[in-house]
Amino acid sequence: QEPFVADEYIERLAWRTPGGGSRGGEAFDPKRLLEEFVNHIQELQVMDERIQRKVEKLEQQCQKEAKEFAKKVQELQKSNQVAFQHFQELDEHISYVATKVCHLGDQLEGVNTPRQRAVEAQKLMKYFNEFLDGELKSDVFTNSEKIKEAADIIQKLHLIAQELPFDRFSEVKSKIASKYHDLECQLIQEFTSAQRRGEISRMREVAAVLLHFKGYSHCVDVYIKQCQEGAFLRNDVFEDAAILCQRVNKQVGEIFSNPETVLAKLIQNIFEVKLQGYVKDQLEEHRKSDAEQYLKNLYDLYTRTTNLSSKLMEFNLGTDKQTFLSKLIKAIFISYLENYIEVEIGYLKSRSAMILQRYYDSKNHQKRSIGTGGIQDLKERLRQRTNLPLGPSIDTHGETFLSQDVVVNLLQETKQAFERCHRLSDPSDLPKNAFRIFSMLVEFLCTEHIDYALETGLAGIPSSDSKNANLYFLDVVHQANTIFHLFDKQFNDHLMPLISSSPKLSECLQKKKDIIEQMEVKLDMGIDRTLNCMIGQMKHILAAEQKKTDFKPEDENNVLIQYTNACVKVCGYVRKQVEKIRNSMDGKNVDTVLMELGVRFHRLIYEHLQQYSYSCMGGMLAICDVAEYRKCAKDFKIALVLQLFDTLHALCNLLVVAPDNLKQVCSGEQLANLDKNILHSFVQLRVDYRSARLARHFS
User: What keywords are assigned to this protein (predicted)?
Assistant: First the structure.
């Protein structure tokens, strides 16, 4: 039995044998165990021979059955071939019979068709005779339930009557025409009644009969008219139209054989009657009196109409439904879209002017004319080259004349104008129209607001020698910078998508570049003059607070201050200006302006220190002042400025160093590369310079 393990089998055999335990022991008997193994081997051999004989017998039986099965399969294959041959013969016979039957059917049809036509012609002649006699006796004409058969007959008689000469058959032709018209009216009336009752199957039957009548189109018109009864009861005519078309689309295929034509005619009727009338009522009310509301309504109505058109695209309206719907929309809005951009520009111009004027009125400010022409251009060129104020300074009382509220309002109006332009402009006119809107934005935001504020800010910067001057131009810079980021965002987000693939792109980019450069020139000029004023303020502080006795005290042994009062006030003023500059600018502009201020600050202190003579204790005090100035310079976080003050601090050491050490100090790391005249100029500031010993050591 599986699983068979020989070792376990031997182990079990040994344990069953008395004295045959494999682990040994007192009762272990190897001879008996050997005898048991020999006997068991003989038993296994006998069992093996018996099983082998049984296997051989089974193999012989299997071979015999395989031969019998193969013989049986061969017999079945022969039978199958015979059956297949019989099937082929039967199939050929069936095909032959079918061919004969088809031929016979064709012959019968060839005989029956003329017979049926003859019977039909005979019936039509009978009915024609009734019209000729003037008395309709047939049941088909008198029984109202057989209107379908009557319609079929009268339609055929009407066609026949068209071929008859008028002079001989005028009376019968008029009678047939009259009956034709009466039946047509009855069918249309029946269709109308069935539609009101909601009997789709009856409507389908009548429509199929009317299909061959001239009044079929009138049947469609009746269906369209009745479909719209009670369909437009809500305020949203567009949603009502979509629901109506959805409902009719499901129904029309069950009634008419040409549902796409009927649905297209319904949609055309909705557009030309309902929507066109609704649009006209909404727009004509504000067209001349309220441009803002007119533009909002036009955008809203056009958007809702195109959205409705997108929904209708799901239906089967024929081959070119896109062109069909586009023509319907164009027919409604063409008179409004032709002059749309003129209305848009006119509204944007008046609205922007009103926003600006309202702001200046709120500030009680009468906007002054900046002026143009030869004299103004000459002044502008002179100012750019000399950086001098031309004309009287204007006191703005801290007002920047820039307002984020105004800017947001202007940008919002322009954003809405761009959205309307995108929706309402013809694709070929879109870049041109977008450029005109952008030009309006540049005119009112950049020129009339930002540029005017810069001009006013420039005029409000005091001269560099003014005392206690209030410097507001950095506030103008800060607000102008913020505003321009908003302007640039709208340029990228709303204008670029409209002009990105047109020649107007380069024109817009150039216009934007020109206005930026124009503003940057004025900003640079204002910042430069503001820095001059800052330096001027520092000069006034130093002139008012710095005394000659600060650096040459009468009592050398009784100096109690760490640095002078002038130094404290100047450093306090500088720190405020540095913070203001950081708050007013961003990016690399901060470092650029701070570096320029730092360089000018250093030059001022350098030239200021050159004005005094220094005793030993005064020189120590000057070093303390410069150390404080250097600490102030660290707030600039500009390497060059800090380096300049480090060098200045090293120069001030020349004011106090012992004469014997002058040469060693001058050859130090910070002073070794300086011009000797600069070193000499500082040494000359010492009160003991004229002593022969000091002059000798320095020479």
Answer: Coiled coil, Exocytosis, Transport
Q: Which of 231-245, 409-423, 620-634 has the lowest mean pLDDT?
A: 231-245
Is the confidence at residue 508, as pLDDT, over 90? yes
Report in angstroms the alpha-carbon separations of 540 from 118, 224, 419, 610, 630.
128, 91, 56, 17, 20
Handedness of CA 185, 191, 193, 196 (dihedral sign): negative
The full DSSP string for 6-53 is HHHHHHHHHHHSTT--TT--TT--HHHHHHHHHHHHHHHHHHHHHHHH
**CA atoms of 405 and 407, how far apart (whole Å):** 5
Which residues, including other chains, have CB under 8 Å from residue 162's CB and lie 6 or more apart? none
Give the pTM.
Answer: 0.69
Task: Render pLDDT for 217-259 as a digit per residue (tens, 0 to 9).
Answer: 888 888 888 888 888 877 788 998 988 888 888 888 888 888 8
The DSSP annotation for 509-520 comes to HHHHHHHHHHHH
Given a contact cutoff of 8 angstroms between Cβ atoms, the answer to whether 450 and 409 are in contact is no
Query: With b meaning 16 or more CB within 10 Å and e meaning fewer, what string describes 352-361?
Result: beebbeebbe
Question: Poorest-confidence range of 149-153, 361-365, 397-401?
Answer: 149-153
Count of positions (residues) in the chain: 699
Paired tokens of 651? 């120069």
Task: Report which of residues 396 and 96 the model is more confident about.
Answer: 96
Question: Which residues 6+ apart lie within 8 Å of 135 measured at CB?
Answer: none
Q: Which two tokens stand for residue 612?
A: 């005094």
**Residue 10 token pair:** 């031997």
What is the rounded CA–CA span in Å between residue 330 and residue 279?
A: 12
Q: What angle do CA 300, 302, 307 make, to 5 degrees?
A: 95
* Locus of tokens 């309902």: 274
Q: Is the peptide bond preceding residue 3 cis, with omega within 30 degrees of 0?
A: yes
CA dist 265 and 276 (Å) reads: 15
At residue 273's C-alpha, the angle toward residues 271 and 278, to 5°, is 85
Backbone angles phi, psi at 614, to 5 degrees: -125, 125
Tell me: the pLDDT tens digits for 14-35? Answer: 777 776 665 555 567 788 888 8
Partners of residue 686 on adjacent β-strands = 614
Parse the chain into domains and list their residue ranges: 8-122, 397-539, 558-697
DSSP state, residue 448: I
Q: Which two tokens stand for residue 339?
A: 């002059």
**What is the CATH code of the structural domain delimited by 558-697?**
1.20.58
